[in-house]
Amino acid sequence: MGSDGGYSLTEIFAIKFVLADIVIIAALLFAGPIYAVAITVLLVISVFLVWYLTERVGSDDAESDPVREPVDPVTELQNRYAAGELSEAEFEAKLEHLLDSNERAERAGVDTRELALERER
């Protein structure tokens, strides 16, 4: 079972194939080979249909998600520091580097509005 309490797509397909085998064997035993072939064809078509629909729904979800705004470098550094990926010294050094880069860009006339870094004095 999946970690969220539901079944993953792989588990659903595996269950579907096991149930399909049982149905096909039952059709062979009780109804004859023509019915077993017909059921097999229907089950194969249903597998491709489920696969197609899950792919289509997945791509629709990706298109309907709003575009995430890029996180500015300072916020990214703060998040990494809060997550414990950076020590205090590394955080301070990287922040100082970002501020210096922003100041050099402003002196060179490069647009830095998206960075919005201001050195506190």
Automatic annotation (TrEMBL):
It comes from the Archaea. Residues 72-99 form the SHOCT domain. Keywords: Membrane, Transmembrane, Transmembrane helix. Pfam families: SHOCT. The chain crosses the membrane at residues 12-30, 36-54. InterPro entries: SHOCT. This is SHOCT domain-containing protein. It comes from Natronococcus amylolyticus DSM 10524.
